[in-house]
Amino acid sequence: MTPINIRQTLHQHPGISGDEHYAHDLIVKEITTCHPDELHTHVGGFGVVAIWGTNFSNPSIAIRCDIDALPIGHRCGHDGHTAILLQVAKELAQHEPYHKRNIILIFQPEEETGAGAQKIINSGILQPYNIQTIFGFHNLPGFPLGTAVLNYHTFAAASTGIIYRLEGRSTHASTPEKGINPGLAVAEIIKEFDRLNSSPDKIGDDFRQCTLICVHLGDETFGTSAGAAEVMYTLRAFSNTTMHQLIAETNNIVALAAARRGLKVSSTLRDTFRATQNTSFLVEKLEEAFEQGGIPYRHNLIPFRWSEDFSNYLTVFPGAMFGIGSGESQPELHHPDYVFPDSLITPAANTVMAVIDHFCKNISTD
Asked: Do 116 and 184 share a domain, yes or no?
């Protein structure tokens, strides 16, 4: 299949996080023809890891792409990312072997829920290799097609979903004073959380954001005063330290609002992502690779407010994430009208190959 055929086929068969079986089987079929020295399937669920080179002591470079879809389909471009990395695999199959280097391609499931990267790490497949760097990439609407986007420090924000459950006591709607209705506490929480938000153009590590996602309060029973509620937020910050502080502040707001009204409180974190904090000197290496490969690039001073579980790899290996522009007029990621542009596959694959080539020719084996 051509890279465009692959992308369009995956687009027609989206697999949400944890159910990427179609993508897994297609990747295995296609990459088998590229003759990697090792091929690991069903890694961390439906992940695939292909490796060229088998000497654990040799320097290794790993490149990761994500393969899962959203419930509304492939509206984030992971179908395109998969096609790009498969094109890279085909280039490696035709390339002269890189002397004393290992090249690892990771096709990772469950990025959207933040679970996939840790599952790949927990598989233990990567640890025996001398991984001197790991790179991840993501298409970026709003930037010129094919232009690489770098950040020396935080590339993408930390985030977590948080669910607060408030338990009071329901009663007959005619005697609300005999119950404990969480409605006013919910209103107070929403008002106080809004005060925690930074300006959208703030660039410092102390940036923080609270986005209201959902509120459940009582039931459609007009004879009963509400006795329980759930309030769901997504919290974001540009540093892990600020995220920990933000969670502590929101917990305190909810605890005080509940205590004033005699409510019981419990909470749950969901879809938690660390900040994607790049290794600065490897961003400099990316600059060198792009300059030598004739790849246009620019720096983005403000971290992206969305999150990436690529951050988990950076707690284990040195590395960096970069973006590749998918068009200045392209709808934003997760927008219902977003579709990955097929015209990006070849330049993006060339960008990744420039990174691999530079690493393999310029990183010491000592």
From this structure: no
CATH of residue 181's domain is: 3.30.70.360
Identify whether residues 261 and 281 lie together within a single domain.
Answer: no
Instruction: State how far the Cα of 346 lies from the Cα of 20, in Å rounded to an integer.
Output: 24
Domain span including residue 110? 3-154+275-362
pLDDT tens-digit profile of 287-328? 999 999 999 999 998 999 999 999 999 999 999 999 999 999
Q: What CATH number corresponds to the domain at position 110? A: 3.40.630.10
**Token pair in block for residue 267:** 């909470």
pTM: 0.93
Domain boundary among 273, 306, 332: 273
Q: What proportions of the chain, in percent to the nearest 5, are helix, strand and coil?
A: 35, 30, 35
What are the tens digits of pLDDT across the range 48-65?
Answer: 999 999 899 999 999 999
Amino acid at 346: T
> Which of 253, 273, 293 is where one domain is finished?
273
Domain count for the chain, please give it.
2
Pairing of strands 228-237, 158-167: antiparallel
**Are 147 and 250 within one domain?**
no
Asked if residue 268 and residue 331 are part of one domain, the reply reads: no
